[in-house]
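Chain A, query sequence.
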Amino acid sequence: MSSNWATPTQISQYAEDEAENIHVSWQEVDSFSSLKFNDGRHVKTIRDLLHIARDPKHDILEKTYFLKLTGYNFTEVPNSLSGIQARIKMNRGGRITDDTIQLLLNDTPIGDNQANLDVSPIKIYGSDNNLWGGALSLSNVLDPTFGITLRFKSHPKFPHKTTPLIDTVELRIY
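Chain A, predicted structure.
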């Protein structure tokens, strides 16, 4: 048995440690306005995700700020936890790849980073028997601080400055 696909109720965007000392000034409240809940279910960017580069003049592998998505309201929850899946639908401009696709609990990344170089517009991470290398319980995934953190970058073989546009980030538990 699995839950239905669930969407987040809380979304924020944040920079890596020390980023503000290296790159342009940035306000979390401003960047949050670049995301919206479309039709009450889907999360959609309404403008490009912001990029950060450690050396803006020379970094051809620009990365986005991290997105933190939490507060998933799962329905039809199984009796025990055996796996977690994430489904991300987005416009990758043909050359935007993953940097970080990792579960979160209490603002702490847990388990394995599922990032890969595939640039498909719809990607599914995890499976019905994959807990992403994390020691998770059913109560952990039902906690409102549980979620996923995402970060994207230009493809290492095809550098560019195109930015990703996200349509949905959904989670399902088994």
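The chain has a mean pLDDT of 79. Residues 10-173 form a domain with the Jelly Rolls fold (CATH 2.60.120).
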